[in-house]
Amino acid sequence: MTEPAFPNQPAPQPAAETPAAPRPAEQTPAPQPVQTPVVQAAPEPAAPSHELRSALAAVRTEVGKAVVGQDAAVTSLLIALLCQGHVLLEGVPGVAKTLLVRTLAAALRLDTKRVQFTPDLMPGDVTGSLVYDARTAEFSFREGPVFTNLVLADEINRTPPKTQASLLEAMEERQVSVDGTPRPLPDPFLVIATQNPVEYEGTYSLPEAQLDRFLLKLVLPLPERDQEVEVLARHAAGFDPRNLAAAGVTPVADAGILERARAEVARVQVSREVLGYAVDVCRATRFSPSLSLGVSPRGATALLRTARAWAWLSGRSFVTPDDIKALAHPTLRHRVQLRAEAELEGVTAEGVLDTVLASVPVPR
User: What are the sequence ranges of the domains in the chain?
Assistant: First the structure.
């Protein structure tokens, strides 16, 4: 039966049927093999370069040609250079603080300048200032002694806080801003400040904010008897501390070696357990009854940095709890503040840190 036409339209004529084109046969896709995801193992940390470690070990040997009995201080200064930090040296006069810095710079082929901090020293005397040139009728910037690789800030606690603060931007930002224009400092850049622990008359104690900027605080002890005999023997043989070349000190490393070594230190592995141990050590100082000020989070990151550098110098590509213990004293001793009553009882920051390290559980 045909379908009826619409009104007022002629009925459609049946058309001849055209045979339909054959439909292509449907192809069933071949089953794909199930691919098992490949889990890539974490890359093994690269071992510290023997070449770089040998070069820095040679630096310690060169410094030993001029400085006797301060091997630990030399290693700590190398750690500060690897971590791009700054160092506060504390020791009585005559323990070779200035000679140590000069010899280290000579062995590393770095520039060094010394600033004697006095009560009348101005910030511009350290960072530099604008000087008027009458010939050109323009101001030009004259760089201060801070524009060098190793800055020896001798007796930093003898200058007023305003001048002490002039080092803050240089130490933290590694630049100096004069007249609103930032001027970058050379790389590497290390401030080594000294202070006398036995003479406080006419001195200005460093504020806590500036003490926290120093990565390490090193206490230079008096030499042992045998070491002091060696010092006198060298002087009797004609040693001149002002002529390091005559003492046989030669450059054995440079800024390029330090840069490559810093890159390797940054790849040193630290497990979650060791990170937790470092945090627990720092947090324990905040609850010590002998302290009015504990270690800040900045101090915890500083402890991590120094421990990684020490692990690398020791020939390991990972940090252990022993590395945290080894660097706890020089990294944290200046970041804690004793209560007045604890000082009267003879408590020291070293003793508090010893108690903390003995009480915090060590991860296994």
Answer: 268-364
